[in-house]
Write a structure and sequence with these properties.
41% helix, two-stranded parallel sheet, Rossmann fold, single chain
């Protein structure tokens, strides 16, 4: 669309929505993406999903489910640090929180976001601060990473160092997802991270939201869903994760390939069943 004005985007999507069974939003920056998606979900009776937020968050959750299976640790007890408070960073924090992960710290360019921080805050960051960072950690991302189990990078290149990973807990998990240049060079992270994932196809464990679509929309369209909820996204993440069997899991194989044909059908089936169970299916 040749506009960045939320009202114009919302009205355009509403006007063209009649023949469609769902709307996939793409490449809308924060914070306007939150308002646009919220309004369209309220005003339309079909699923509306902002891919940059929820597609990424579903695949990250799937990868973390498999990390917990591989390391035999409870995902809900992970200490997670997220770099980036844009669309993807906030969506990941919200989804992990709703899934039950209790200790999440989100960092932006000013450092850790905490309740009461004054600088560089907007209404969405303020809401996020109230449900994350339970230990009230302040300071830089390096400070936040002390004793963390998981780092999730959804920001810019070169924001953490080898020393930052060494500050993390035993068996550190690093998802450096900035693309094409990640938050730390994979060659630097490989020797010290127990598990490393990136957004790139030339390294193991590519976190790519193509794993969540088209399976999510295939399932929603199959039941003519009226909307989408968190249970549907959780079901999609769990379907992606369990495409890999227990005896196949490995540090270099925590997430299936985007070319694995089982993924789309597994996700579509799980989404359709969950839509029926949660009352969003028309048939």
């Amino acid at each position: 669309l040749k506009t960045t004005v939320p009202d114009e985007i919302v009205n355009t999507v509403k006007n063209i929505s009649i023949p469609f069974g769902g709307i996939n939003l793409e490449d809308i920056s924060a914070p306007r993406c939150f308002e646009i998606e919220e309004r369209l979900r309220r005003e339309l009776d079909i699923p509306v999903i902002h891919d940059d937020q929820h597609g990424t968050a579903v695949v990250v959750l799937a990868a973390l489910i498999n990390v917990s299976r591989l390391l035999k640790k409870n995902i809900k007890k992970f200490r997670v640090v997220i770099s980036g408070a844009g669309a993807a960073g906030m969506a990941n924090a919200n989804m992990l929180s709703l899934y039950g992960v209790k200790d999440i710290i989100v960092c932006d360019r000013k450092g850790a976001i905490y309740d009461g921080r004054r600088g560089d805050m907007n209404p969405y960051k303020k809401a996020l601060a109230k449900k994350t960072n339970p230990r009230d950690v302040k300071g830089s991302i390096s400070d936040a990473l002390k004793d963390a189990n998981v780092f999730i990078g959804l920001s810019v290149p070169n924001v953490i160092t080898k020393d930052d990973i060494r500050k993390m807990s035993k068996e550190p998990v690093v998802f450096a997802l900035a693309n094409p240049e990640p938050e730390i060079a994979p060659e630097d992270a490989f020797p010290i991270a127990r598990i490393l994932a990136t957004g790139r196809s030339d390294y193991p464990n590519q976190i790519n939201n193509m794993l969540s679509f088209p399976g999510i929309f295939r399932g929603l369209l199959d039941v003519r869903a009226k909307g989408v909820n968190e249970e549907i996204k959780f079901a999609a993440a769990e379907a992606i994760a369990h495409t890999i069997k227990d005896d196949e899991l490995h540090e270099d194989y925590i997430i299936p390939s985007g070319f694995d044909r089982k993924v789309v059908s597994s996700v579509a089936h799980a989404v359709a069943e969950t839509a029926r169970k949660t009352g969003l299916a028309r048939h």
